[in-house]
Amino acid sequence: MSSLEFINKSEPEIRKPLVIAAMQDMGNVGSIVVNFINKSLGTVPFRHVKSTRPPYVYDRGGFIEIPEEKWEYRFGNDFIIFGGGPGQPQQNDELNELCQDVIDIAKKYDAKFIYTVGGFHTSKQFGKHPTTYVTTTSKSLLDQVQRLGIETTPQESVITGFNGLILGYAKLNGINGMGLYGELLEPNIPQYRAAKSIIQTLEKLTYQKLGDLSELDAKADAVDSQLKGGIKDDYDFYFLLGS
């Protein structure tokens, strides 16, 4: 029996949207990007997914809380946006079911393209200017990306979790897809500059302005300041800042 519940709130009047679908990952990059775009575009929720089987609990210092895992589908400005928020399914059956649901929604509204985003863990020093690397669902798309002067993933690798698997589901279902992954050094700290780099690349690919990125600069500077102030507990720091 499925532990995911799918709830429709409305039926948006939208056809042939671009789909952006991503979930929380290292550096919180997927959620930062999705939450930023939703806020900037003023998107409206029309469907959500809830998990009835939490993969972890919070210890609040002597008592536990059970997290509510809920992920929204939202629409606006010819986009359908899925994901953001905390967490993603940890069980393969849930993860595959969720990917298939995103594909089903994309087909329902005749979407022709799916973008996903996430972090790209590296040991390379890049200062305040991380690179976004792109991978695609076909060689022809790869050629198009390279003609735009956009960096592509530099070597073979395995992409785990929703922000990789959704590209496989797109390819299996004949939908074009791209994954955009921003460089980061510290996966346990929110990576606002990686998110900014990804959004700039998305703007170049979609020919659309997705918001005032100075907000992400300010949040990145705040992270730097708090790190210089001696914050040591990555777990508390990560969930305190959120996105």
Name some characteristics of this structure.
243 residues; 8-stranded mixed beta sheet; Rossmann fold; alpha/beta; globular; two-stranded antiparallel sheet
Describe, in plain words, how this protein is organized in 3D.
- This protein is of the alpha/beta class and 243 residues long.
- It has a single domain (4-151, 158-241), classed as Rossmann fold (3-Layer(aba) Sandwich), CATH 3.40.50.
- The chain is 36% helix and 23% strand.
- It has seven helices and ten strands.
- Helix 1 (29-41) packs across helix 5 (192-206) and helix 2 (92-108) crosses helix 4.
CATH C-level:
Alpha Beta
Count of discrete alpha- or pi-helical segments spanning 4 or more residues: 7
Named CATH topology = Rossmann fold
Query: C-alpha Rg, in Å?
Result: 18 Å
Q: Which architecture name does CATH use?
A: 3-Layer(aba) Sandwich
Sheet with the most strands, sense and barrel status:
8 strands, mixed
For this structure, what is the CATH homologous superfamily? Answer: PAC-like subunit
| Tally of individual domains | 1
Uncertain regions spanning at least 5 consecutive residues: 234-243
